[in-house]
Structure formats: structure tokens, C-alpha cells
């Protein structure tokens, strides 16, 4: 089993913690990690972009001038794509971007992402998040003490003081164990989790 140091909010080691190898020590499946990221980014797209083609633009029913004898190029409609106000060629239409990943694949991808952070020594465990007031500098001080700048802070339970204190910090995001995902784990350089959060993850994914 992989063993990590449990730190307090001042960055001092208070104990050692053994991580479950079924979650934090699996063989990394890069293909499924890639699919999970692609799926999440695709599912975030609204797919509502729309522009009108020449058949949908209003007007243009009359031929603008006669076919021959004017000196102009022949034209059939003022709503053709080359005209100002005309339709768009191959215009985008609303579509569904959703990509599905089955439950087993999602779990393997998440475990692979967590394992990659543990192997890179970018997985920091804090004994407890204690914030008595909403102060951004308190969260910044905690992250500085553990050497985390661009960090995903994972909570085991709801902590409004932490969430509100961290939201003004660039490059820092808070999440509950139930909302963590592969994209965020890979996007942020360091994953900072509470000891409670580790227990929750092991309980759900073991």
C-alpha cells in the first residue's frame, strides 16, 4: 500500500496514512482517462449554435436583375451566400454533443487519475479543514504551507467557510468527494484532500 504523510494546516506532518491500492495504486489506463476527459468536455457543450442557410433567410424571392445584358454576373437571389445579409454556407445547426461512458470505465478512469497524482507526489492529505471565518488569506496560507498553488481542494463534507474563502483564489477549486472528476484532477497541479475525503473516496470506489 502507498503511504502518504498527513499534514496539518501549517504544513507539519501529524501522522502517516495508508492508501487503498485498489484506488490509489491501480495500473493507469491512459486510454480511458482520455475518453473520460473528452466525454466531460463534450457533455459541457450546449450545442445550441444556429445560423440560417439561404433557404431560411427572409426575402430574395425575386431575381435581382435579368439574366443577360446588364454587365453584372448572373444572380438568382439577393439571399445567396455571397450577398450581404445572405444565408450561411454549411451553417451550424443545433446538435447533441453528448458522449457516454459506462460506469465501469468512469471508475477506472477516476482511479487512474488519482493514482497518477499519488505517483507524482501531488496528492496532499490534510488532517482537517478548520476555518472559523471567511478569509481568503487563510486558505492561501494553508496552500502555501503545503506547496500547492494551482490546487483542487477536496472536502469530505460541506464546508461553506472554505468554499467562500477559496473562490477568489485564481487556480483553486473546491469540490466534494461526490463531485470530483477526471478532468479537474488532471487540470490542477495538486490535489489537496482532507483525511475525511480520503475515507469517503475509499468507501465509494473500493
From TrEMBL:
Where does the record place Basic residues bias? 60-71
One Pfam family named in its UniProt record: Ribosomal_L4
Alphabetically ordered keywords of this record: Ribonucleoprotein, Ribosomal protein, RNA-binding, rRNA-binding
* GO MF term (any one): structural constituent of ribosome
Is Disulfide bond among this UniProt entry's keywords? no
Per the record, the domain of life is: Bacteria
Q: Which GO terms describe its biological process?
A: translation
What are the record's GO terms for cellular component?
Answer: ribonucleoprotein complex; ribosome
SUPFAM superfamilies per UniProt: Ribosomal protein L4
Instruction: Map out region (Disordered) in residue numbers.
Output: 43-79
Protein family membership: Belongs to the universal ribosomal protein uL4 family.
What task does this protein carry out?
Forms part of the polypeptide exit tunnel. One of the primary rRNA binding proteins, this protein initially binds near the 5'-end of the 23S rRNA. It is important during the early stages of 50S assembly. It makes multiple contacts with different domains of the 23S rRNA in the assembled 50S subunit and ribosome.
Subunit text? Part of the 50S ribosomal subunit.
The entry's protein name is Large ribosomal subunit protein uL4
Q: Which gene encodes it?
A: rplD
Amino acid at each position: 500500500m502507498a503511504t502518504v504523510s498527513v499534514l496539518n494546516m501549517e504544513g507539519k506532518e501529524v501522522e502517516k496514512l495508508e492508501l487503498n491500492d485498489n484506488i490509489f495504486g491501480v495500473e493507469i489506463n491512459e486510454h480511458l482517462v482520455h475518453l473520460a476527459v473528452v466525454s466531460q468536455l463534450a457533455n459541457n457543450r450546449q450545442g445550441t449554435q444556429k445560423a440560417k442557410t439561404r433557404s431560411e433567410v427572409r426575402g430574395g424571392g425575386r431575381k435581382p436583375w435579368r439574366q443577360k445584358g446588364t454587365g453584372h454576373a448572373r444572380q438568382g437571389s439577393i439571399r445567396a451566400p455571397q450577398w450581404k445579409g445572405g444565408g450561411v454556407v454549411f451553417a451550424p445547426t443545433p446538435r447533441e454533443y453528448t458522449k457516454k461512458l459506462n460506469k465501469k470505465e468512469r471508475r477506472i478512469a477516476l482511479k487512474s487519475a488519482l493514482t497518477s497524482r499519488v505517483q507524482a507526489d501531488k496528492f496532499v492529505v490534510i488532517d482537517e479543514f478548520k476555518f472559523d471565518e471567511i478569509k481568503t488569506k487563510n486558505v492561501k496560507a494553508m496552500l502555501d504551507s503545503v506547496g500547492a498553488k494551482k490546487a483542487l481542494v477536496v472536502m469530505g463534507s460541506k464546508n461553506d467557510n472554505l468554499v467562500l474563502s477559496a473562490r477568489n483564489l485564481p487556480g483553486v477549486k473546491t469540490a466534494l468527494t461526490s463531485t470530483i472528476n477526471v478532468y479537474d484532477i488532471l487540470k490542477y497541479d495538486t490535489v489537496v484532500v482532507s483525511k475525511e475525503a480520503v475515507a469517503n473516496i475509499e468507501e465509494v470506489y473500493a
